[in-house]
Amino acid sequence: MLKPWIFIFGVLLMAGTAFSGQKKISSRTVSFQAENDQVKVMSFNIRYGTANDGPNHWDLRRQMAIDLIARQGADVVGLQEAEDFQIDQILGALNSYGAVTAGRRDGALASEHCTILYRRDRFIVAEAGTFWFSDRPEAPGSRGWGARHPRICTWVRLIERKTGRGLYVYNVHLDNRSQESRLKSAELLAARIAERNSKTTPVVAMGDFNMPHDNPGMQRFLEKGALAELTDTWRNVHPDKPETRTYHGFRGGTDGHRIDFILVDRGTKVLGADIDRYNEDGRYPSDHYPITATLKPWQ
Question: What local confidence, expressed as pLDDT, does residue 32 receive?
């Protein structure tokens, strides 16, 4: 059942007028790349558009971000930190996608979203929702466990139009300060995945987890016997590579740790995983690198 605070593609076209006087965004055709039995997914923290970022302000990098999403051609995209006008602009430029989204402050439009974009020609939405990482997960705007801001997970069960095959997608942005919040948020997310209506349907959990691979919070998913036992797609494909950063603060580089992840259930075959470090003369589309994974979820 669709939750009342979830906005499906089209509703957000009422928003985003604050920037109507800015330079028109060029539209792009998305060339989808995955084979019929594969799904390409992407997670991208796009940095909230009202941030005072000077030369890295959203107005100056939004076309680069939109072009990157179009070039990757993912079937499903998880955006973090997206504000309503940014989502509106992305959907206006890339109308091959539908969206499931909700603002973390009010469950409607206010503040940042964890938006899920999906191919409208391939998928329909069977059910969707948003919950808050707090002791009151159904209460819009609720905070918990030392988090400074409300933290959310937006999720969806997608159904392939042609085959009827399903895919659960969970998109998160966990707290950047409180380890207690990250631990308890991971436990809540694992519990929600374990409680999903269709237990045999494959799962993708992605987003900005704000913790590295070896953090105890990540082990709530990755350790053997976990409540929702998942696998890290990048490490699955690159088992011997050293850790590398995904947050770079508009500076680029590789030194550091991944805090952005695409996790999948252990029945899903991971065919590829990558970190997109695209830039134009040292200018980046966001302060995070987007990450991708190509999956074969249905065996």
Answer: 85
> Within a domain: residue 120?
yes
Residues with Cβ < 8 Å from 58, sequence gap 6 or more?
46, 47, 48, 49, 50, 51, 86
Task: Decide if 292 is inside a domain.
Answer: yes
Convert the pLDDT of each residue in 82-105 to its tens digit. 999 999 999 999 999 999 999 999
CA-to-CA distance for 280 and 271, rounded, in angstroms? 28
Number of structural domains in the chain: 1
Q: What is the mean pLDDT of the chain?
A: 92
102 vs 82: CA distance, rounded Å: 10
Residue 159: inside a domain:
yes
Q: Is residue 54 part of a domain?
A: yes
Note the pTM of the prediction, 2 decimals.
Answer: 0.93
Residue numbers of the domain that contains 132: 7-14+33-296
**DSSP of 16-83, one letter per residue?**
-GGGTTSPPPPP--------TT-EEEEEEE---TTS--GGG-HHHHHHHHHHHHHHHT-SEEEEEEE-
Angle in degrees, 0-180, between the axes of helices 84-93 and 58-72, rounded to the nearest 10: 50
Q: Which residues of the chain have pLDDT under 70?
A: 1-26
- Tell me the sheet residues that pair with 294: 40, 272
CATH of the domain at 285: 3.60.10.10
pLDDT in tens, 235-244: 999 999 999 9
Rounded to whole angstroms, the Cα distance separating 79 from 207 reads 8
